[in-house]
Protein 1
Amino acid sequence: MKRFLQAVLLIACLSPLAHAADKISTLVIHPEETIYARFEVSAKKIKLVNVAKEADGQAQVIFTLTREAKTGILELKVDNKFPNDLIYRAEIRSKTRNLHTPYHVTPVVGGKVAFEKLPPAVEEFAAFDFKLEK
């Protein structure tokens, strides 16, 4: 009986975490990766619903992070397929140095491509808090 109660308690404690894991709110990209992001758009909100490394024809935003061979500087390319401007917040991270800092990004005009230059020490780029501006 004691084991049964422990199992029930464990399941009760872990079930809220399982539900929270279903929600995607941050997109993380590493150098030399391409990430395809799909969103669910309602009247006033935009919600990230799928992030994939495989080519996705239905993705509304495509993030590509490449490193220039000569200088080592990273270039982030953001392809916005929405008709409206895409606004988001970002953070750059270095896992080996255990550092992270907010990074100012420019909004991506609807139907256009934007480019951002990142320092060579960046190992991850995280994008979150996505919004569409009319």
Note: Helices lie at 2-21.
Protein 2
Amino acid sequence: MGRGYPWPRVVVLGGVVLALGFLWALWDGRAQPVHPTDWVLENAWPRRERPYVLLFTDPLCPFCGRLEAALASDAEVKALVRYLPVAKHQGSYEAWLIRLRDWGFDEGEARKWLEEGLAEAERSGVRVTPTAVVMGKTEKVILGFSSYRTWREEVLDAIGP
């Protein structure tokens, strides 16, 4: 009788490698400053006057999805959000095109905004999704997402009274 495949060891080792990779990506993203370019400040969608939240998001990112689902039921904070594209997952570009068409962009406008937005997000230093840049009484960068309550408190604190 053979020893068989060492599943427990492989699963644990795979989990450790995945966790370390995630932590490295998060740490690497935090080490990089995020500074929105002029294009980002002018063209984030929809246009809003300050105060606002620049939200760099990928429609296929599970953390972005959780954040956007929570935002959908929070009219106060949702009214502050201006979206910017990031495409870290396979199929994200196409998902962004669908989203932009739903927002009223025609195909040509959507592709142009998306191409420029993806390049400008990279120039702005965005490495982690979601990334929020609060443009309020203070400018604050919020990397990643774990708890909506905490995220919301950080946003409103930076927005100020």
Note: The longest strand covers residues 52-57.
Protein 3
Amino acid sequence: MINELISQIDTEKIKQTFDRLSIVRPAGVPSELHSLRLSILQLTYSEGAYEISKIYVNINEQAEVALTADYAFDSLNFYVEDDDYYIFGYDANGVEKVKYFINRNVIAIGGDITYMKKIGGEYYYLPNSVMENPEYELRRQEINNSGKMLCHTIKPDGRVCFYVLPDIELNYSVSSIWI
């Protein structure tokens, strides 16, 4: 099931988005761009079906660009090298729109531990963290058994999201996205 969803990603549309993408580079974001890599997919589960709701593309070791399901720019996410505990999200104009506290050390520990917290309330849990809702728990187990799940969350509006790691090199480089 996960591989079927991953195969739905249109890499040509990702490339087209990056060909016309212009972002104000916030202070602290490395300017170099590496070959693009599809790093995370946000899957939203609703009414018995999954849909891809966000596509995360690594542009260098500290930064990724989040795209919407229709391949439009959503945010530039990055962490500052000497502060590995926060991820900052910016809009295309360089304005901070979100901040996350992330505890990367819990991946080695595992279990029912909070992996990440969006400042303002949303919590993200490791793949083995059991969900209270039996239907969601079944979906969590299904995705976790694929070996590709990073974390999961229930959004404030009730959507259930699973974050999976497709780790696909796009073999595509852009010369610049920075304004």
Note: Helices lie at 2-7, 11-19, 106-109, 134-144.
